[in-house]
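Quick check before the chapter quiz. The format below is the same one you will see on the exam, so make sure you can read both the input and the output lines.
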Amino acid sequence: MIPVESKTRRDALLCLFFLVLTVGLAFLPTGYESRIDANAVQCKGRVLAVNDADVLQFGLVRTGIQAVELEILDGPHAGQTVRGLNQLLGKMEMDKLFAPGDTALVVLTRNAAGEVTHVNPVDHYRLGLEMVLFGLFAALLLAFGGWTGAKALLSFAFAGLVIWKILIPSFLSGYNPVLVSLGVVTILTSCVIFLVGGVTRKGATAFLGAMLGVGTACVLALVFTDLFRLHGAIKPFAESLLYTGYGHLDLKRIFVAAVFIGSCGAMMDLAMDVAASIEEVARGMPGASRRQLLGAGLRVGRAVVGTMTTTLLFAYSGGYIALLMMFMAQGVPLSNLFNLIYVAAEVLNTLVGSFGLVAVAPFTALVGALFFGAPSRANQEKARVPA
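Here is the expected output.
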C-alpha cells in the first residue's frame, strides 16, 4: 500500500502540473489572432430606439434592415450615442430583433483617427449571464465535490482550453484531424482520469480502458464513414468554412474525429466505474485471481452499459428533435428518413459511439484484472469466491 502522505503529495503535484498547463494555455496564441480586425472595438451598448420601417415580414420570416440607436456603455467610446444597422437574413436561427432597453454586443469599426465609421450590433449581450451561470456551476461543484470538485473544475477548464487553443487551430492549419484528435483525446483523458482517480492502478486501468474504447470507435468511424458515403459537409457551417479560404480541409476526417470526440466523455465515465469496482473487489478479496476480478468487472460493466448507451442516444437525438418533428409532420416514411445523409450521419454518430462505449467495459475489466489480480497460483488458491 502507498502511504497516504505520498498519495496526497503526488495528487497535489499533479494538480499543480495541470494548473500550470492551464494558465500557459490561456496565454498561448492560436496563430489566428492576426485575422481579428485591429480597428474593431467590442463593447456593450444599450438600445435607445429602433426603426423597423425597412423590415419586411413574410409569414414568420423577417427580412430587411432594422435601424438601431445605441448608447455605448463601456470601452473608449463609453457614453457616446451611435447608430447601426441590424441586417435580417430571413433565417430565424440567425436573425435577431432589438427593442428599446435591450443590451447588445456592439462592434465599432474605427478609422486611423480613431473615429467610429461603422456600427454593428452583433447580438443581444449574453456574456454577463454566461459568466453568472458558470460561476453558479463552479460554486455547486466545489460545494458538493470539495477537493475532488476543484480537480474536476480544473480538468474542465483545461479541456476547454485544449480544444480552443490546440484542436481547432490544428484543424484549420490542415493537420490530420484524426491523428490530432487522438492526441488531444489522450491528453484530456489522462488529465480527467488522473486528476480524479489519481496516479494509481485504478487511474491507469481507467485510462487504458477508455483509450482502447476510443481507438475502437475511431476505427469504426473511419470504416463506416466511407461505407455510408458521408462527405463531412453535413455539419453546420462546414460548407461555409470551405468558402472562406479553407478549401484544403478534409471535412470527412474532421467528421470522423467528431464522432469519437463526442463519445470519449462517456467512455471515461464507464472506464472509471469499472476500474473503481475492480479496485474495491480487490481490496475486499486480497489475493483474488485475475479471472475473478475479470468476472467482477464484466458484471459491473453490464450493469452500467445499458444506461450509458441510452445516454448517447438522448444526447444526439436531443439536438434533432425539430428535424424529427418536421419529418413526422410531413409523413416521411422511416425508410426515407434513415436514408437521408444528415440522419445517417447521426445514426453513425450514435451507433459508433455506443459501440466504443460498450467495448470500454470488457477492455477496462481485462486491464483491471491484469493490474489488480494475483499473478501466482499460490495467491489464487488463497482467494475465495463469495457464495
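If your answer matched, good. The chain has two domains: 38-125, 174-382.
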